[in-house]
Amino acid sequence: MRILDIAEVVEQTGLRPSTLRYYEEIGLIKSIGRQGLRRQFTPETIMQLSLITLGKSAGFSLDEISGMFGEDGQPNLSREDLRTRADDLDRQIHDLTVLSKALRHVANCSAPSHMECPKFQKLIRVAKRQKRS
C-alpha cells in the first residue's frame, strides 16, 4: 500500500495542511499514522477530499458531507439529497441569470441615472420581496 505524506496530499489537492487537520479532527478523513510529526494518508484520501470539495461547491455543509461517508470512508450518497440539491442549484442558476441580465440592462440603460431606469426600479422591488421570503 502506498502511503502519502501530508505534503503530498497538500500538493495534490491544493488544500492547506490546517484544512486537512481540521477535516481529520471532525472525522471527514482519517490519517493512518505519523512519520515523526507528519500525518500519513492512504491514496483513497485524495478521492475523499475531491468529494468533499465537490460537496462544498454544491452547497452542502461539512456536517451534511460527513453524513455522506460510511464508516469505511466510502461515499454513501442519498440520491434524493443529490436530486434536491441539484434542484436548488437550478433555482439559484435561474435567479442569478435573471439578476445578471437585469444588471446588464441597467448598466447599458439610457436613463440619466439608475434610479430613473424602470427595469432597475423593478429589480429593487423584486429584491425587496425576495428578502421578506
From TrEMBL:
Gene3D superfamilies: 1.10.1660.10. It comes from Kiloniella litopenaei. InterPro entries: DNA-bd_dom_put_sf, MerR-type_HTH_dom, MerR_fam. This is MerR family transcriptional regulator. The lineage of its organism: Bacteria, Pseudomonadati, Pseudomonadota, Alphaproteobacteria, Rhodospirillales. SUPFAM superfamilies: Putative DNA-binding domain. Signal peptide: none annotated. GO terms for molecular function: DNA binding; DNA-binding transcription factor activity. It holds the Pfam family MerR_1. Transmembrane segments: none annotated. Residues 1-71 form the HTH merR-type domain. Keywords: DNA-binding.
